[in-house]
Amino acid sequence: MKKAFVMIVAMAMLGSTVACSSGQSTPTAGESSNSKSEGAPKKVELKVFLGGLDRFRDQFEKYFAEFAKKEKKEKNIEVTINTEYPGSDNSTQILKTRLATGDVPDIFSLHAVNDIPDYYKAGYLEDLTKQPLSPKLIDGIKALVTIDNKVVAVPMESLAWGYLYNKKIFKDLAIKPPSTLTEMKAVVQKLNDNKIKPFMLSYKESWIPQLFLPLTIGGLGNSSHKDFVDKMNKNQGSFAEVKEMFGIIDLVNSNGTDRVFEVGNDDGAADFAAGKAAMWVQGPWDADSILKANDKFEFGVAPLPINDDPTATQINVSVSTSLALASQGKNKEVSADLLNFILDDQASNDLYQGLKFNPVSKNHTFKPYPWVEDASVFVNKGQAYKDPQIPAAVKDESGKALQAYFNKKMSADDVIKDLDKTWKDANAIANKK
Question: What is the pLDDT of residue 356?
Answer without folding.
Answer: 87
